Amino acid sequence: MRKQWTMGALTAVAVGIFAAVAVGGADQPTQAKPAKAASAATTAWGFKLTAIDGTPMPMSKFKGKVVMLVNTASFCGYTPQYDGLQKLQSEYAAKGFTVIGVPSGNFMGQEYKSNKEISTFCQTKFGIKFPLAEKAEVVGEKRIPIYKWAAETLGEDNAPKWNFHKYLIGRDGKLITAFPTKVEPTDPSVRSAIETALAKG
How many structural domains compose the chain? Predict the structure, then answer.
């Protein structure tokens, strides 16, 4: 049986919707931008994440796959995008694609405090099957290394401005592009980019 949201959670979502419109939406680009030339030979496969259950999750585990790296949140107006992300996972996983969710409270603290709560929410509310990293910083000086690298590679204008920002990484571990929060996971532009990247396998 799916877990019901508490009144506090519903209030947080309502606040998140208002904040996303008033704060997070206005300054976000509406179109994905192509990657700038990556420096040296650094790729995503050189970074290490920790899974939401506390076990090591090196990016090298996904080498050869197309990866969509998404900073997620449980109490955001865009939280329903989990449905679209899972649809992409179900549709393209067999072809060599995976979503990786990175829960974060960077934007108005719209995430549970514990990894266990996040994991339970994702499984019971959305049936998430794709890998989730532990809760982490994705912007600012304390952001985890892979997000620092991504911002340096694509530019700060393509770094997360809100929850559910999406980085697309090719089979070679290089960043391809970024899609801002407002672009739905199942948008034709996202599907096209994924299919183009998969075809390069």
Answer: 1
Question: How are beta strands 166-169 and 175-179 bridged, if at all?
Answer: antiparallel
Q: Would residue 1 count as lying in a domain?
A: no
Determine whether 76 is an active site residue: yes
Rounded to an integer, the average pLDDT of 109-132 is 98
The count of C-alpha atoms lying within 13 angstroms of the C-alpha of 56, restricted to the half-sphere facing its C-beta, is 6
**Longest CA pairwise span in the chain (Å):** 50
Residue 124 CA to residue 9 CA, distance in Å, equals: 15
Q: Of 52, 76, 122, 151, which is the active-site residue? A: 76
pTM for this prediction: 0.82
Give the C-alpha separation, 102 to 167, whole Å: 11
Q: Is residue 138 part of a domain?
A: yes
Q: State which residues form the domain around 66.
A: 7-199
Rounded to whole angstroms, how far apart are CA atoms 175 and 125? 30
Give the position of tokens 């992409």.
88
Q: What is the pLDDT of residues 142-177, one digit of tens each?
A: 999 999 999 999 999 999 999 999 999 999 999 999
